[in-house]
């Protein structure tokens, strides 16, 4: 069963985003970033209402800025996707989920210790430099759907 519908263009966008946001964290770090992207599309709640595609998620604007720093700054995100990242993107789109990003809708690199909450949402865990946060129970059922 596929977690979300996707196109080759979605795979390319996801691969570029995963690399731009987490290349330094290796395969697992990139998978976790990809998982947050898929979770945001499925969530349909909180800051992520009416996101119906991977493209919607990646190019979402909040508070006048893109949600993902890599889109805002342009860096690696605007390079071509490599086959290794495309494979990881497909894996995430199809089935991959793992703690601490399993239900996470947010992640960030605080360049310090992970705070216990992020915009009021609970900390679920850390992988290398990124801290992951999932919605408070009962505030976003969509985040907990497969």
UniProtKB/TrEMBL annotation:
Q: Does the keyword Hydrolase apply?
A: yes
The portions of this protein that span the membrane are none
Signal peptide from the UniProt entry: none
GO molecular-function annotation terms?
Answer: hydrolase activity
Residues forming the Cell wall hydrolase SleB domain are: 24-133
Keywords of the record, alphabetical order, are: Hydrolase
What protein name is recorded for this chain? Cell wall hydrolase
Which taxonomic lineage does the organism of this UniProt entry have?
Answer: Bacteria, Bacillati, Bacillota, Bacilli, Bacillales
């Amino acid at each position: 069963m596929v977690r979300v519908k996707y196109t080759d263009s979605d795979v390319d966008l996801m691969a570029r985003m995963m690399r731009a946001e987490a290349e330094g964290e290796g395969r697992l770090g990139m998978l976790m970033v990809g998982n947050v992207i898929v979770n945001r599309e499925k969530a349909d709640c909180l800051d992520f209402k009416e996101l119906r595609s991977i493209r919607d998620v990646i190019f979402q604007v909040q508070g006048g800025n893109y949600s993902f720093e890599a889109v805002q700054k342009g860096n690696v995100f605007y390079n071509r996707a490599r086959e290794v990242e495309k494979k990881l993107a497909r894996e995430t789109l199809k089935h991959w989920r793992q703690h601490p990003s399993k239900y996470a809708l947010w992640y960030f690199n605080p360049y310090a210790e992970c705070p216990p909450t992020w915009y009021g949402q609970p900390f679920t865990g850390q992988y290398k430099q990124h801290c992951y946060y999932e919605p408070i129970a009962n505030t976003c059922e969509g985040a907990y759907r497969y």
